[in-house]
Amino acid sequence: MIALDHIAVWSDNLYRATLDLSELTGIGSSDGGYFPGLGLGQKLLSLGGSVYIEVESIVDHQMIANDAPLAVEVARQTFGGDCFAGLCFRSDDEAEIEAFARHRGKDVSREIAGGKRSMNLSVKRPGAVHAPDFRNSWLVGKPNVYHVPELESHPSSMPPQPGSGSTRGEGVTALEVGGAEADMREWLGPLDIDELGVDFHYNGGPDGLYAVTFASTTGSQTIRLNPITL
């Protein structure tokens, strides 16, 4: 069974983007760590219901100077401002991931691209089984799916840094995406989008995520950003 897992936001400034989102929503942030092989840093904001936003930015700018593909892509995508980069679902059944990969004609990815180092040295992050990878999903404005067998150590449960925000998310209720419903259902193939329990609004524009609406302790809120540029 699939569920909404996380939403990626790309920015040219990790701290500014995180502060902007915390000021907008009142939700505090935690440190998601660092991807050494990608030069990418990450901050997390929980939206409740085991769903979170991951704010990502290039923090090792030598990667851009060296023309590392992801670093250059993030720089390109964020030239005009922050954007929604990835819409990520999860399943507790690895067979679903494999069936989805076959439907998309791609291999299942079993490692985290670029590795992952947590700021919590006691946390040892396992590999991340998912399909398709970001180049075959995020960069075409479509969701990918991760295998998440349990939620005990889910990133959405990380406590926010004290003082960074006191509002609590209570779950995502709606998403605005480009394209049409038929396009999304064709993309997902054997996966049932109705299992997400989220209202999808299709605006007919280019593929990608445009807005996230969620319940919170201060009422319903909507975050709207540019979609990824295809």
Describe this structure in words.
This protein is α/β, with parallel strands linked by helices and 230 residues long. The chain has five helices and twelve strands. The strands form two sheets. Strands 1, 2, 3, 4, 5, 6, 7 and 12 form an eight-stranded mixed sheet that branches. A hairpin with a 2-residue loop joins strand 3 and strand 4. It is globular, with a radius of gyration of 16 Å.
Please outline what is shown here.
This protein is an alpha/beta fold. Helices cover 19% and strands 33% of the residues.
Structural class: alpha/beta
Radius of gyration using CA atoms only: 16 Å
Number of strands: 12
Please give the alpha-carbon distance between the first and last residues. Answer: 29 Å
Low-confidence stretches: none
Q: Give the SSE string.
A: EHEEEHHEHEEEHEEEE
Main beta sheet strand tally, sense and closure: 8 strands, mixed
Classify the beta-strand content into a percent band: 25-35%
- Assign an overall shape: globular
Put simply, the count of helices is 5
Work out the helicity level. 10-25%
Overall mean confidence score, pLDDT: 94
Give me the secondary-structure topology.
Blueprint: E1 2-11, H1 14-25, E2 30-35, E3 40-48, E4 51-58, H2 62-65, H3 69-77, E5 83-91, H4 94-104, E6 130-131, E7 144-147, E8 169-177, H5 181-188, E9 199-202, E10 209-216, E11 221-224, E12 226-227
Parallel strand pairs: 1-4, 5-7, 5-12, 8-9
Antiparallel strand pairs: 1-5, 2-3, 3-4, 6-7, 8-10, 10-11
Question: Key features?
Answer:
230 residues, alpha/beta, eight-stranded mixed β-sheet, four-stranded mixed β-sheet
